[in-house]
Structures are given as structure tokens and as C-alpha cells.
Design goal:
about 140 residues; alpha+beta; Beta-Lactamase; five-stranded antiparallel sheet; two-stranded antiparallel ribbon; 7 strands; globular; disordered N terminus; transmembrane helix
């Protein structure tokens, strides 16, 4: 898994360089395990990844209530005092999360995240797990 994380370093750095204000980027599996990160410390990234699992589940449940939706969460944006939180579907069972300060422009952030996912989405996948093992 460590080599897998190392392969994402340059891609996540490109996103961080492309949008001013990014404080942390986390790539995570649908079950809330951190795959890779840029910025911040590992413990914070692990907490963000775990929280994202619940958030993406909640967003999908709400999407199920929209008659024209296929029930798939594509992106969540949360504005808080002092910054933004972005969560985007990045591939089968994988997500891209970004924490930023108020300097980050949401439109630019969304576009840059979408570009990153389009370029490397197939590599941002995480196989489903059962009993802690990939199936």
C-alpha cells in the first residue's frame, strides 16, 4: 500500500499547486480508509477519511430521494467559517477529499478536482473489502 500512496504524491501536489488555499488532500476508499494524502498529518487525514465514509453514504441516501437521480454521489461542498470541504467521487469505491481555507475559489477547486479525477480516476479505485481483506 505504501508504494501505491507514493505514486499519488505528484498528482496530489499538482492539485495543491493549482488551487491556492488547499490545506489537505485525501484520497480514500468508500469504507473510510486513507489511500493517500497531501498536506496535514496522517492522523488528521485518517479522521477526515473516516468522516467522509459517513458523508458519502448520507449524500447517496439523499440522492436516492431525488426522482431524476441515479443515487450516486458526485460531489459534496460544505462551507464552514474559515474554509471549505470538498468530497468528490473519484472512481469505483474511491473518493477525493479536499480541505481548504477561504482563499480557495470553489469553482476553480471543483474544476481542478474534476480534471484530476478525469485523468487518474481509474487509478483511484479501491476494491471492496470483507473482514479487512480485498474481495
Amino acid at each position: 500500500m505504501m508504494a501505491y500512496r507514493a505514486n499519488f504524491d505528484w498528482m496530489l501536489q499538482d492539485l495543491a499547486k493549482g488551487v491556492p488555499g488547499i490545506q489537505m488532500i485525501v484520497v480514500l476508499s468508500a469504507d473510510g480508509l486513507r489511500i493517500a494524502r497531501h498536506g496535514g498529518d496522517p492522523d488528521t487525514a485518517d479522521r477526515v477519511a473516516a468522516a467522509c465514509a459517513g458523508l458519502q453514504s448520507l449524500a447517496s441516501a439523499v440522492a436516492d430521494e431525488i426522482p431524476t437521480s441515479d443515487g450516486q454521489m458526485r460531489m459534496v461542498l460544505i462551507e464552514v467559517n474559515g474554509g471549505y470541504f470538498y468530497l468528490m467521487a473519484a472512481g469505483p469505491n474511491a473518493y477525493l477529499a479536499v480541505l481548504s481555507n477561504i482563499v480557495a475559489e470553489p469553482g476553480l477547486m471543483s474544476a481542478q478536482m474534476r480534471d484530476l479525477v478525469d485523468r487518474i480516476g481509474p487509478h483511484l479505485t479501491s476494491p471492496p473489502r470483507r473482514n479487512g481483506k480485498a474481495v
